[in-house]
User: Fold this.
Amino acid sequence: YQGVRMGTEYLHSLHHKNILYLGRRKGSTTHKLRAQGYMEACRDLGLEPSFLDSNRLYSSIQMGYQLARNLFEKPLAYTAIFAATDTLAIGVLQAAEEAGIRIPEDLSLLGFDDILYAGLPTINLTTIMQPKKTMASMAVDVLLEKIQNPSQAYSHSILAPSLVVRGSCREI
Assistant:
């Protein structure tokens, strides 16, 4: 939720007013929270939310490619795309290249997850990073604590995401 708010606010700070959220999935709590963060950020910033939903149960480069390929058959109505995952964003990059759409000159692109490939020079994806190592370490600590003290209540922690600025977004 907070990461998508952060990303939407970042795109808005670059003066993007038409931001498409690509890859919203039904049935996933994670994606529900991400979509909610986008909608609430749009509301707070005075933007009209716009979605291109995915009907798949998972995110993939191929799904991002298909969604974007269909989108790019019409004139661009958006100045930025916020992809629900980095894998979807990489598919968008591929479809954009084939359609002659330059990232970020013609269209800014933001992903979510900061996967290993996002930082490769040819991808250079601006993204939202989740502190995965800290999350994993905390999960192990909680599990070990639960094993040692089965009657202890579960703990709930929220870790802050961060914006990783690379080269796929530009100010307009």
User: Anything to note?
Assistant: The first strand starts at residue 19 and ends at 25.
